[in-house]
Specification:
Layout lengths: L2 H11 L7 E5 L17 H12 L3 E6 L6 H10 L9 E3 H12 L3 E6 L2 H8 L4 E3 L7 E4 L7 H12 L3 E5 L4 E6 L2 E6 L1 H12 L3 E4 L4 H11 L6 E5 L2 H11 L2 E5 L7 E2 L13 E3 L10
The chain binds magnesium ion.
The site of magnesium ion (MG) has 7 residues, from loops.
Length: 286
């Protein structure tokens, strides 16, 4: 089938007209990478978001990111005219803080992570970032120079009743740290290890796990069947959305493969409901 025929065929079958909430993945969808020194936002992306708003659609941005603090991610999206306010922005780090606040007042949290996630906990006065017992929650994000001492301390806390949470949903990262270039172990295998050692289960905060999607839907009070997830990764954005009955739109683009999630047991992945090459094509389906 020709490209154009295929688009026409899809157009006749899919409508996003009755959708209320459009959730956008950030990296690879509305901008290339949040770490770029020179962030470039395509004016077509900003216009598309504006048009959706004009059509009465609610907009959210959802990223598994925890290496960059939430406030910085939100600041970038607002500064570039993508988000109207930080209330539209959700990162795995932000949702982890909110999840813990809902679970316990003034929770004492031990965080194994690099700066981003630490800052998320540091700047929220309703949680306490601690390095001594008692500990209510052990939170694990990306830490490329993790050490045995903190792992042992985390294990002790978990054995004494602390809840374990993984943030970011990553198997391993590829990148550079100091003089080392290569792969770095992610939050999931570290939590698997702590879970294996303690015999306790852990909570996952990050796409495709349902918790983070549920958090965004609850914030906007929208039923999954009236929500759309627009993402560039089958194994996180699309899989997670389809699991919950959220309409999934895949933006075909050159993916920034910085982190790797575990291979899905249900391969091939669920197909997206719609595939587009550029974000503005979404307006054809309203
Ligand atoms: Mg992405």
């Amino acid at each position: 089938m020709k490209e154009k025929d295929r688009a026409t065929d899809k157009q006749s079958r899919i409508s996003l007209k009755d959708k209320e909430l459009f959730i956008f993945d950030i990296e690879g969808v509305v901008l290339r990478s949040i770490d770029d020194d020179d962030i470039n936002v395509d004016s077509k992306v900003v216009e598309t978001l504006e048009k959706l708003r004009e059509n009465g659609k609610k907009i959210a941005f959802l990223s598994n990111i925890s290496r960059t603090p939430f406030f910085r991610v939100a600041e970038i999206l607002v500064d570039f005219g993508l988000a109207k306010s930080q209330n539209e922005v959700f990162t795995a780090g932000k949702v982890a803080v909110e999840y813990i606040k809902q679970r316990k007042k003034k929770a004492r949290v031990f965080v194994i992570s690099e700066r981003g996630l630490i800052v998320d906990f540091e700047i929220d006065n309703s949680v306490e970032l601690v390095f001594e017992k008692p500990v209510d929650f052990v939170v694990v994000g990306m830490k490329r120079n993790i050490n045995f001492e903190e792992l042992n301390f985390a294990l002790e806390c978990i054995l004494e009743g602390a809840e374990l949470i993984s943030v970011g949903y990553t198997n391993y990262y590829r990148g550079r740290f100091g003089s080392k270039e290569g792969v770095f172990i992610g939050d999931l295998p570290i939590c698997e290890m702590l879970s294996f050692a303690s015999g306790k289960r852990y909570i996952k905060i990050g796409k495709p796990d349902p918790l983070i999607f549920g958090f965004v839907l609850a914030e906007f009070g929208v039923n999954p069947k009236f929500a759309v997830m627009v993402g560039d990764k089958l194994e996180t954005d699309i899989k997670g959305a389809k699991n919950l009955g959220i309409t999934a739109v895949l933006v075909r683009s050159s993916q920034t493969k910085k982190h790797f999630v575990p291979p899905s047991k249900s391969f091939p992945y669920d197909k997206p409901d719609l595939e587009i090459d550029s974000l503005d094509e979404i307006l054809d389906y309203l």
